[in-house]
Every structure is written in C-alpha cells, then in structure tokens.
Amino acid sequence: MHTIYHLQFTTFNPPCPTPPYSKLFFTFLCLSMVAQAHTITPPKVVPSNIMGVTVFLQGAQVTRNALTTLDLGKTELVFRGISPQIDPQSIQVKGDGAFTILSVQHQINYLEEQKPRSEVEQLKTTQKQLMDKRRLQNVGLEVCKNEQALLNKNQTVGGSNAGMKAADLREVIAYQSTQMQQTQLKMIDLLTTIQQLNDTIAKIDKQLAELNERKNKQTSEIHVIVTANAPSTAQFTISYLVQEASWYATYDVRAKNISQPINLQYKANVQQQSGEDWTDVKLILSTGNPSLGGIKPTLPPWQLRFGNTYTGYRPSKAQAVVGAATNTTTGEIRGTVRDAQSGEPLPFVNVSVAINGSMAGAQTDFEGYYSIKPIPAGEYSVKASYVGYDTTNG
Questions:
Q1: What is 313-393's CATH topology?
Q2: β-strand partners of 251
Q3: Among residues 40, 90, 43, 96, which one has the least CA distance to residue 66?
Q4: What CA–CA distance (Å, rounded) separates 261 from 300?
Q5: pTM above 0.85, yes or no
Q6: Where would I find the beta strands (DSSP E) of the chain?
Q7: Number of CB atoms found within 10 A of residue 309's CB
C-alpha cells in the first residue's frame, strides 16, 4: 500500500545560506517515511472450520482450526463467521509455528450477516414453489369465471332465429347445463386447492418468522495480532463458549413380549441457536457445567457400616442448657454421638428423651450433632438408636 504525503512549505529569506547537507537530510527523512508506509499491511482474513463441539446441558464449547501463511513482522489476522453470542472471556487461541501471539480481541461485525441455515433455505424454496402453484391456480380460476360469465350471457337462446325447433332448443339447454356444471365443479376444485396452498404458505411464514427471531443477524470476529521473524506457515486452534445451545436425554424402551428382556436406548436431543452451522460436526455431550471453576473440591468421606455389628457407641454426656434469662422454664439438650471404637461421629442417629410421659427427639447431622428443644429445665435420660449398633441410654 502506497501512502502519499502532501507537504506544504513557507518561503522566507534565511539570514545565512542553507548548508548543502540540509537537502540531504530532508530527502532521507522522506524516504524513511515512505519505507514505513510500505510496512503497514491491512488485516488478513483467515477462513476457519468447526472441528468439534462439546455440548453441555446449558451452553457449548466450539473448537475451530485454521491454516494460513505469515509474512515477516506483525500481522493482524481476522477470523470471521463467529457466533455473536460468544463469551469473550472464554476465547482461547493456540498456535503452532514460528511466531508469537501478541493479542486476542473480539468484536461484533454488523456489516456481515449470518449465513442462512439449510432449514431456512429449504423453507424458502418450498414457499416459492407453493406461491408459483397458487398463482397458476388463480389463473385457472379466472378462466373459469370468464367461461361462467359467457354461458350466462348466452342463456337467451335464439336471438333473431325465433323459429328454433324444440329438439335444437333441448340440445342447447343440455349443452349449457353440462358446461355450467363442469365449470362450477372446476371452480370448486380450484378454490379448495388455493385454500390449502394459502394454509401451507401461512404455516411456512410463521416457521420462518420463528427461526429468524431466535438469532441475531450480525456475526462476530476474533482479531489476533502475531509477529514472526521470518515468513512461515501458521496453524491455529480457537475455542470459545456459546450460550444458545443445550441438550437433554431421552429414552426409548422397547420389548417384543413379556418374556423377552427390555431394550433401553439412550438418546439425546440437541438444539442450538448460536448462528453457526454445525452440519457434519462431531458432537460430544457433557453433563458438566463450564461456568464452574476447575479446582477439584475436597469432599468429606461418608462411611456406611450397615450390616456390621459393633459393641456399642460412645455417646456424649447430655447436658441441659437453661434458656435465656427472660424464660427460665425451658431448656435444650444437645450433644454429639460418636463411635465407641473409632471415635468418628455417627450421622442419622435417632436420639430421644421421655418428657412427662411423651417422647421428644431429633436426628444427628453429618457431624453427629443433635439438639432437642424446647424442653422443660431438668435432668433427663437420653436414648440413642442406630442401625447395626446396640441401643444405649446415656
């Protein structure tokens, strides 16, 4: 790209003659400016293909591959046709080659619209065929109306030939009746066909409106600036998350008869309105959540000892805790139930206490803790029972 510089000078009389090297310096400066203008190159549009998509229960991760050549120096690469519903923070660009990635930016392209989906193109083609057929039916209907008008005008038989025989008159009347009947039946068929075509075209219009409303018309772009020390070939892998995609499981249960085993087929319904074409793209279904962090949580172990018999457990000493000073007649029993041998807390232990002939109780949580309240202040005997353990009073 050549850049033209317009220079404006003001003439004045210098107090002393201009040295000859001033002209050389000015010429060198202009040549340097022209050389720098030649190094400025426009962005390079690089086509990319979708190689795979991982569909989550809400959202999807799209992976694209691209191959291009790089010149010496800095180059701005533009990857177009990206979904406008992309999460910019999820963009990952990996390169394979002798170059360095300097920056990655995402922006919306309002000038380039999305390519129509194959479903939309098929509906538009079918719509055009039906409209052409309806146009032909309307022409046939107009012809039938003209024939009917002509037959109605010719109902006055004879004209100046007043002496028409009865046989000729019957023949004319029979001909007109037959033609009128055929014309009426043909008009009914044409009207029925036109109505059916109108209904089908109206349904296609609604379907097209539904498909066009689900997505934005514009697309987005990913701009990548790279630098290379020498001309080379570069391969890029781009991944990002889109929102308008999901899947859910369906099951197909079949059995030939009651004596045969059941055949259970596991299926998935995938839907996406990202604006990208996923035709013939490898899909991976995942139940993960891409919005969660990648750090593995630490889960406490749950130990089940059902069926194993132990000598007993070691309950903690129950204690009555008097309530607030404003109400000294009620209290609380709380404590922790642990295994007598290992000392580990026992969850889901039924703890009960007899109060004035009735029973009050609670169940321990995952830490073996229980709390019974409110109860009258006093001393009580606590009873705990657990599957696989001996019942003990404490």
A1: Immunoglobulin-like (2.60.40)
A2: 266
A3: 96
A4: 40
A5: no
A6: 44-45, 49-55, 60-70, 73-82, 92-96, 100-113, 218-228, 232-242, 245-254, 263-272, 282-285, 313-315, 319-322, 330-339, 350-355, 358-363, 369-376, 382-385, 392-393
A7: 8
**What single string gives the DSSP state of each residue in 127-146?**
HHHHHHHHHHHHHHHHHHHH
Burial 49-80 (b: 16+ CB within 10 A, else e): ebeebbbbeebbbbbbebebebeeebbebebe
Q: Angle CA(286)–CA(290)–CA(295) in degrees, nearest 5?
A: 110
Closest to 268 in 3D by CA, of 284, 255, 281, 256: 284
> In terms of Cα–Cα distance, which of 144, 139, 145, 137 is closest to 192?
137
Q: CA angle, corner 190, sides to 186 and 194, nearest 5?
A: 175
Longest dimension (CA), the chain: 133
Query: Angle between the 166-213 and 118-153 helix axes, to the nearest 10 degrees?
Result: 160
- What is the pLDDT at residue 92? 93
Segment 51-82, tens digit of pLDDT? 999 999 989 999 999 999 999 999 999 998 89
Q: β-pairing, 330-339 with 313-315?
A: antiparallel
Contact 300, 282 (CB under 8 A): no
pLDDT the model gives residue 74: 92
Residue 164 near residue 157 (C-beta atoms within 8 A): yes
The structural domains of the chain, with segments of one domain joined by +, span 118-157+164-213, 313-393
Lookup: tokens for 47 = 């086509």
Separation of alpha carbons 187 and 296, rounded Å: 74
- Cα separation, 234 vs 228, whole angstroms: 10
What pLDDT does 312 receive?
A: 43
pLDDT in tens, 183-242: 888 888 889 999 999 999 988 888 877 766 655 567 889 999 999 999 999 999 999 999
Residues 6+ apart with CB under 8 A from 340: 310, 311, 312, 313, 314
Measured distance CA(66)–CA(46) in Å, rounded: 7
State the Rg of the chain over Cα.
44
Tens digit of each residue's pLDDT (9 = 90 or more) over 235-289: 999 999 998 899 998 888 888 888 888 888 888 999 888 888 888 899 999 988 8
Q: Which residues contact 101 (CB under 8 A, 6 or more apart)?
A: 93, 95, 224, 225, 226
